[in-house]
Amino acid sequence: MIARSNAIRYSFGDKVFLGFGWVVLSIILIVVLYPLLFVVSASFSAGPSIMSLSLIPPRPTIAGYQIVLQYRDIWVGYANSLFYMGVGTFINLLLTVLCAYPLSRPDFKGRSFIMVLCLITMYFSGGMIPNFLLVRNLGLLNTRWALLLPGGMSIFNMIIMRTYFSTQVPGEILESAQMDGCGNIRFMLRILLPLSTPILAVLGLFYAVTHWNAYFDAMIYLRNRSLFPLSLILREILVINTANIDQMEISQLMLLEERRNVMRYSVIVISTLPVMLLYPFVQKYFVKGMMIGSVKG
Known about the structure:
MetI-like fold; mainly alpha; single chain
């Protein structure tokens, strides 16, 4: 018998197309990857070497990290940001599930009207001043809840989760569970949520990154420095007060600029490290969740 090769044979046109695709993707990879590697390299550089475009520091040093980590408020900001990210993500997912599940049920009366009310909030907002007045009148000003409750749920993410519940979880599972005496809450906790791990991981990552990077709400609602998140602390570090810059000597200005350059890249690495460590643990769920709906089988 003649053995058949399983290798795919490409035509000349296919090879040209694949080669062109590899070239384009390689260029995109370089454009995206180089700035990231440069930031890491620059964080270990000092002096004039920071301005070089080399990815290998000519004089490696950890002076930037030493300066930043000696700043006490950095650790306070880290603890606050971890709290906001953890508790905030839990609140976001809880409210998103509690809103998405009823709206995914075809037997839920009035779901179309409620969905319209939810969609209106995506196009119209009261604005910054009414939101501030609302937070103040609720007694949330200068408290941790001011960063957690006002943005408790994203309507866009709720729509994604509702679509997942209605398309990826067969209705026959609910019917079988109801025949066995399973109620709605028990069905949601014991059956629906375990089957929804991919979408929970994706939306949880979205919420977590949003909380970690948020600083504008903290700048508006918080006055107590012990409540500041890391992003707000890092912003204060990078924005150095130059009110008396005219009174400084040239040597002082050069030292000030060099110190700011050393800290700038170290701050970027420190602020992105938790998210970079979080992503590998949810990567498989993230890829699966993002592919939901693209392939039907």
